[in-house]
C-alpha cells in the first residue's frame, strides 16, 4: 500500500500488471473501479499506465500510454474528499478512518476486540440464560462438540455434566455456517464415533492417518480461526451430527434452531462454492499447515473502498457498501439451509474476503476503522431470531418469506424442513402455528401471495419427491414473490390509533379444513385451520381493551392487551395460552389438501396488462378479467409456474375460461391504501376509478383447475363486488391440493 500525502502523486504502473498483482487491495480496487465504470476497457489494460494524484481535495487517476511520461490531469477524478475536524484527519463519504487489510491474514486481534466490545455493550444479544426465549427451551439433552484444545469430539450434556460443561452452565461454542456443495466431506458415523472421541483424533495429521482423507478445508480453517479467537468448543453439522444416527440425528435436525441460537456466535464461511474451499486468510501453520495442505489463496479484498493512512477512497457508489457483509452474490446467500442458520444465530462473524461482525445492534466491517457499537454509524442487520417480537409481526414474517422463497434447495422436499425451525420460533407469537408455511392466525390473508409482477422471470415449481407441496402455499414455488397484501394487512393491523379505512380488513368466506390421506388413498377430514375471526366471539378475546382517542372520529381507536406492552392493534385477536410442549411440526401430520365449500363462477381471462397503469413500469403475468358481455370484472395474476409437471396433465381446453372460487372479501375505503398494490384502481374501466372517495369492495378469488377431483391453484385475482354480486354463482365442494 502506498502512502499518499496531500499535493502529491504516486506512480501505480501498468494497469494489467496491477490487476494481476494480488497483494495490493488499493491498486486492485482502482483498476476494478476504472473497468467497472467503463473508464477503460479490459483489452486496453496492458497498454496503459496509471498515476494516482491527490491535490488536497480530490483523487485523480491519470492514465497514459505504457512507458510514457504522464501528462497531467488526463484521468478521471476518483473521489473528492472533505477535510474534516481540526486534527486534519480525512473523512470520505462519512466513513471514518480506514483500516489496512492484509490479503494473507485475517486480523484475529481485531475480531477479538469486536467480540469483547460486543459482549460488553450488547450483552442483551448474547445472554445465555434467556429464560423467555423459545430457543433455549428445546428438548436437547446433549450435543456433540469439537473440543479444540483436545482436538477431538466430546459429548456435552447441556444441563451440566460431560466433558465440556462447567459449573457456570452450558459450554461456550462457536457454530459454522457454510455451503456443503458437491464435494465429499468426512463425517461422523456410528463406525468412527468412538475413534473421533480419542484426544487428538481431529488434529489434521492424526485424522489424515486414521481416516485416509484430510479434514475438509473450510471446516479445518473455521476450527483454526475459532481456536485463535480463544474459543474452546466448535460445532459443525458434519462432525457433530452422527450421520447414520437414526433418531438421534432427527433430534439434532429438529433442534437446529436451538443449536445455532445457543452458539456464542456463528462463523459464516461464504467465500467459495463448497465446503472444501477454505477460509482465505486463516493461517494454516498451526499443527503442520503447509506440509499437510498448500497455503490458502489470498483473500479477495478488492473492495469498493481503498484505504490510505487516515482516509478511505471510495471507488464505487455507496449503496453497495453492505453487500460484503450480507454476502450478496455468494452461493452461501442462495441456500435455504444457511438462511435459517444465520437467522437463528445471535451474532455472525462473516468471512467473505473481508471480515465483518454482525450483531443485532451493530455491523462492524473490517475496512472501516470504527469501534464496534460506535454511535452515529448507520447499520442494518439481517433478520435475527433475537429480533422476533412476542406479538405476531406480519411484516417481519413477510420479509423472511420473501428472502426464503428465493433460496435454493438440493432437495425440494426439504422446503418445509428447512423452514420448520423458523416456523417453530414464529409459532410462539403466531399461535397456534403454521400449516404448510402459512400462519393459521392470518391464514386467509396469507393465501393472497402472488409472483412478483415486476419480474419477468416466472416462478419455478418446487417438486417434492416424497411429499406433495400444496399449490395454495408459497412453499410450492421458488422465486420472487409479491406479498403486498400481507404487508398492507400488517401495516393496518398494527396501526392502532390511526384513522383506518375499515377495521375489518379481510372477511374470510371459507372455513378451511385440514385433511389426512389414509394409506388406502382415502381423504379423512381433520381439524379446521384456526380462524381468528371465528374464534373472536369466544373467551379468547377477553383481556383486550379498547382505547378511543378523545374527541376523535369514531374509527380512531386502538386495542391493547397486557401481554403486548406498549403495542396497539387495529383489531383484537385471540391470545392463546402458550403450551408447554408445543407440537414442533404439525405439518407432517396433515396432507396438502384443504377441504372446504366455496362460491364459484367463470370469467374470461381477457387482455394482458403490460404496463403498470400508475407506476408506468412493465408488468408481467397480469390479465384483465371480463364477464360474458365483455364487461370489466377484475384482475388476475397468473402464477405461470415454470417446470410444472402438473401442468402437462391438465387437458388443454379453453385457456381463457377461468374457474374462480371466492375465498375472502375485502373493502378498501382509502385510496392511498389502494394505489400501492391494487393496480386496477388506476385502470380507466375500474368502477371506482372516478369515485375515489368511495369504497372499493372486491372478492379475493383463486383461479383453479382440476385433476382427479382435486383442484389446484393456477392464479389469484380480485373481482369487483359489483360484478360478482350480480352474477349467478354456484356452490362447490373443493379439495384444494
Ligand atoms: Zn454488538
How would you summarize what this structure contains?
19% of the residues lie in helices and 25% in strands.
Written description of the protein model:
By secondary structure, the chain is of the alpha+beta class. The protein folds into four domains: 73 residues, no CATH class; 280 residues, no CATH class; 185 residues, no CATH class; 136 residues, no CATH class. Helix content is 19%, strand content 25%. The strands form nine sheets. The chain has an eight-stranded mixed sheet with strand order 8-7-10-9-11-14-15-16, with helices on both faces. Helix 9 packs across helix 11 and helix 11 runs parallel beside helix 13. The longest helix is centred in the N-terminal third of the chain and has 14 residues. About 6% of the residues have low confidence. Zinc ion binds next to loops.
Portion in helices:
10-25%
The strand count comes to 35
The Rg value, from CA coordinates, equals: 29 Å
Number of domains: 4
The class by helix and strand makeup works out as alpha+beta
- Mean pLDDT across all amino acids: 78
Q: In whole angstroms, how far apart are the ends?
A: 62 Å
Shape: globular
Strand content: 15-25%
The distinct ligands, each listed once, are: zinc ion
Number of helix segments? 19
Task: Output the keywords.
19% helix, 6-stranded antiparallel β-barrel, alpha+beta, Heterokaryon incompatibility protein-domain-containing protein, HET, single chain, 8-stranded mixed beta sheet, 35 strands, 737 residues, 4 domains
Amino acid at each position: 500500500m502506498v502512502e499518499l500525502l496531500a499535493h502529491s502523486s504516486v506512480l501505480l504502473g501498468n494497469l494489467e500488471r496491477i490487476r494481476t498483482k494480488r497483494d495490493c487491495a488499493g491498486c486492485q480496487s482502482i483498476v476494478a473501479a476504472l473497468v467497472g465504470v467503463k473508464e477503460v476497457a479490459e483489452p486496453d489494460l496492458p497498454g496503459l499506465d496509471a498515476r494516482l494524484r491527490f491535490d488536497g481535495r480530490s483523487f485523480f487517476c491519470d492514465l497514459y500510454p505504457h512507458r510514457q511520461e504522464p501528462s497531467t490531469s488526463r484521468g478521471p477524478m476518483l473521489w473528492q474528499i472533505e477535510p474534516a475536524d481540526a486534527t486534519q484527519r480525512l473523512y470520505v463519504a462519512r466513513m471514518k478512518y480506514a483500516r489496512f487489510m492484509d490479503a494473507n491474514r485475517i486480523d484475529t486481534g481485531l475480531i477479538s476486540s469486536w467480540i469483547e466490545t460486543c459482549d460488553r455493550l450488547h450483552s442483551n444479544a448474547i445472554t445465555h440464560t434467556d429464560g423467555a426465549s423459545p430457543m433455549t427451551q428445546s428438548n436437547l439433552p446433549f450435543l456433540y462438540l469439537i473440543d479444540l484444545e483436545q482436538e477431538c469430539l466430546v459429548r456435552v450434556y447441556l444441563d451440566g455434566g460431560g466433558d465440556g460443561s462447567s459449573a457456570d452452565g452450558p459450554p461456550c461454542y462457536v457454530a459454522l455456517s457454510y455451503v456443503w456443495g458437491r464435494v465429499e466431506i468426512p463425517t461422523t458415523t456410528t463406525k468412527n464415533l468412538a475413534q473421533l472421541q480419542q484426544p487428538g483424533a481431529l488434529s489434521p495429521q492424526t485424522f489424515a492417518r486414521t481416516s485416509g482423507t484430510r479434514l475438509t478445508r473450510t471446516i479445518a480453517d473455521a476450527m483454526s480461526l475459532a481456536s485463535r479467537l480463544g474459543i474452546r468448543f466448535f460445532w459443525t453439522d458434519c462432525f457433530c451430527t452422527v450421520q447414520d444416527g437414526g433418531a438421534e440425528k432427527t433430534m439434532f435436525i429438529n433442534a437446529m434452531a436451538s443449536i445455532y441460537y445457543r452458539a456464542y456466535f456463528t462463523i459464516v464461511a461464504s467465500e467459495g462454492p463448497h465446503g472444501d474451499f477454505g477460509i482465505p486468510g486463516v493461517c494454516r501453520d498451526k499443527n503442520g499447515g503447509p506440509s499437510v495442505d498448500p497455503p490458502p489463496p489470498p483473500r479477495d479484498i478488492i473492495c469498493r473502498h481503498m484505504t490510505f493512512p487516515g482516509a478511505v477512497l471510495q471507488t464505487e457508489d455507496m449503496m453497495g457498501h453492505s453487500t460484503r457483509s450480507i454476502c450478496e452474490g455468494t452461493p452461501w446467500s442462495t441456500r435455504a439451509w444457511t438462511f435459517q442458520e444465520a437467522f437463528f444465530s445471535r451474532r455472525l462473524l462473516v468471512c467473505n474476503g473481508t471480515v465483518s461482525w454482525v450483531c443485532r445492534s451493530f455491523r462492524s466491517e473490517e475496512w472501516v476503522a470504527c469501534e464496534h457499537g460506535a454511535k452515529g454509524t448507520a447499520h442494518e442487520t439481517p433478520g435475527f431470531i433475537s429480533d422476533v417480537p412476542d406479538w405476531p409481526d406480519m411484516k417481519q414474517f413477510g420479509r423472511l418469506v420473501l428472502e426464503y422463497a428465493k433460496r435454493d434447495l438440493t432437495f425440494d422436499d426439504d422446503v418445509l424442513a428447512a423452514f420448520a425451525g423458523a416456523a417453530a420460533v414464529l409459532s410462539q407469537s403466531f399461535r397456534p402455528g403454521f400449516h404448510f408455511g402459512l400462519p393459521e392466525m392470518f391464514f386467509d390473508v396469507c393465501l393472497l401471495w402472488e409472483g412478483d409482477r415486476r419480474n419477468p422471470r416466472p416462478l419455478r415449481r418446487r417438486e417434492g419427491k416424497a411429499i406433495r407441496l400444496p399449490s395454495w402455499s408459497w412453499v410450492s414455488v421458488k422465486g420472487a414473490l409479491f406479498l403486498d397484501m400481507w404487508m398492507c394487512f400488517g401495516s393496518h393491523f398494527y396501526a392502532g390509533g390511526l384513522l383506518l379505512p375499515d377495521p375489518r380488513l379481510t372477511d374470510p368466506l371459507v372455513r378451511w379444513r385440514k385433511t389426512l390421506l389414509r394409506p388406502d388413498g382415502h381423504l379423512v377430514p381433520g381439524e379446521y385451520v384456526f380462524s381468528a375471526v371465528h374464534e373472536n366471539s369466544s373467551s379468547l378475546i377477553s383481556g383486550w381493551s379498547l382505547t378511543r382517542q378523545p374527541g376523535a372520529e369514531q374509527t380512531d381507536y386502538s386495542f391493547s392487551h397486557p401481554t403486548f406492552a406498549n403495542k396497539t392493534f387495529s383489531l383484537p385477536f385471540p391470545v392463546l395460552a402458550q403450551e408447554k410442549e408445543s407440537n414442533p411440526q404439525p405439518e407432517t401430520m396433515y396432507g396438502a389438501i384443504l377441504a372446504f365449500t366455496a362460491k364459484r363462477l367463470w370469467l374470461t381471462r381477457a387482455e394482458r396488462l403490460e404496463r403498470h397503469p400508475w407506476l408506468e413500469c412493465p408488468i408481467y403475468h397480469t390479465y384483465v378479467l371480463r364477464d360474458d358481455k365483455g364487461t370489466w370484472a377484475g384482475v388476475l395474476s397468473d402464477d405461470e409456474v415454470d417446470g410444472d409437471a402438473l401442468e402437462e396433465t391438465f387437458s388443454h381446453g379453453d385457456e381463457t375460461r377461468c374457474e374462480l372460487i371466492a375465498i375472502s372479501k375485502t373493502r378498501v375505503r382509502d385510496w392511498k391504501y389502494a394505489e400501492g398494490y391494487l393496480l386496477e384502481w388506476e385502470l380507466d374501466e375500474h368502477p371506482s376509478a372516478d369515485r375515489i372517495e368511495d369504497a372499493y369492495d372486491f372478492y379475493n378469488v383463486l383461479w383453479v383447475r382440476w385433476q382427479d377431483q382435486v383442484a389446484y391453484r393456477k392464479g389469484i385475482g380480485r373481482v369487483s363486488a359489483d360484478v360478482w354480486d350480480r352474477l349467478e354463482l354456484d356452490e362447490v365442494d373443493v379439495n384444494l391440493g
